[in-house]
Amino acid sequence: MPEVKEAQIVLHDDVPMVTITREFDAPPESVFRAHTDPELFAQWIGPEYLANTIDRWECRDGGEWRYVSRHDGEEYWFRGCFHEVRPSEVIVQTFAFEGFPDSVSLERLELTDLGNGRTRLTATSLVDSFESRDVVTGQAEHYANLADQFGLRVTPHHVSICCGDRREFARSTTSSGLPANAV
Amino acid sequence: MFAALADPTRRDIVTRLSDGDATVTELAEPYEMSIQAVSKHLKVLESARIVTRSREAQARPVHLEAEVFDIMDAFVERHRKRVERRYRRLDAVLSDMTETNEE
């Protein structure tokens, strides 16, 4: 079995965008289906400790999606629309955490056939500000720690994006003092 | 800290300081803004402890506090590892799909 190359991540300097690349030991058709089939998608998308239930997953041009993650009795809903879906090639969709409906990201998934049953996945997330992106890339969970460390008072007021990690942020935000109705 | 870096000019200043210390005048040079405006940006970076300014030299060069960025790098790496864990779960799903097809 060929060696699996670990995910690479690039934070762009000029736009609040994150690009993730990863190679898979499976053909584009399979990787595509693991994104479009709600049952398969639910198996891998979220962090291990969150239960994901897909309410709607219409992976086609003009389709909508919505799912909920549950953790410690809390529910976190996410939704968006599919804009362009080309089998085994491209999925363009929007993504929003329902607690922060104004903060919508644009996501593009591209699959490249590498031959020999392998695929390169390129996923870009364009979020609405650099601040949101810093939140997305995981720093938000540690706002409180950083604030202590640097003697700062920091209030995270953006939520967004990047697949499963948004839920982790949603959780950390609630626990760090945002109004309860924000989530 | 992240709010301090949300501004494109401040991000640019930080990028340039990663090449070495610079005075306010040097930092202001490429921008179409007053030295006062650049100073304001530096104050924000200073209060977030991203940069420090020497009290001794007259030109008071601005210095980037590198460890701040080590911490940010660590966060990005932490995020990358989370992404990698997610894609390992996808690896497992893909592997199950192949087995199902072969049956």
Describe what this molecule looks like in 3D.
The complex is a heterodimer of chains A (183) and B (103). Chain A is α+β, with helices and mostly antiparallel strands and 183 residues long. Chain A is built from 5 helices and 8 strands. Chain A has helices spanning 28-36, 38-44, 130-136, 143-150, 165-175, and strands at residues 8-11, 17-24, 51-57, 64-71, 74-86, 90-97, 104-115, 118-126. An 8-stranded antiparallel beta sheet of chain A has the order 1-2-8-7-6-5-4-3, with helices on one face. In chain A, strand 7 (104-115) and strand 8 (118-126) form a beta hairpin. Chain A is globular, with a radius of gyration of 17 Å. Chain A starts with 7 loop residues before the first strand and ends in an 8-residue tail after the last helix. Mean pLDDT of chain A is 74; it is low at 139-183. Chain B has 103 residues and is mainly α. Chain B is 63% helix and 6% strand. Chain B contains 4 helices and 2 strands, in the order αααββα. Chain B has helices at 8-17, 24-28, 35-47, 66-102; strands spanning 51-53, 62-64. In chain B, strands 1-2 form a two-stranded antiparallel sheet. Chain B is elongated and about 75 Å long. Chain B starts with 7 loop residues before the first helix and ends with a helix.
Number of strands of chain A: 8
The CA-CA distance between the termini of chain B, in Å, is 54 Å
Strand content of chain B: 5-15%
Measured by DSSP, the beta-strand proportion of chain A falls in: 35-45%
Helix content of chain B: 55-70%
How many helix segments of chain A? 5
Give a short account of the largest sheet of chain B.
2 strands, antiparallel
Residue stretches of chain A low in confidence (pLDDT < 50, at least 5 long) are 139-183
Helix count, DSSP H or I runs of 4 or more residues of chain B: 4
| Termini Cα gap of chain A | 43 Å
- Main β-sheet of chain A: number of strands, strand sense, barrel status? 8 strands, antiparallel
Structural Rg of chain A: 17 Å
**Taking strands numbered 1, 2, ... along the chain, how are they ordered across the largest sheet of chain B?**
1-2
Strand numbers in spatial order across the main sheet of chain A: 1-2-8-7-6-5-4-3
Tell me, what's the shape of chain A?
A: globular
Topology order of chain B in helix (H) and strand (E) letters: HHHEEH
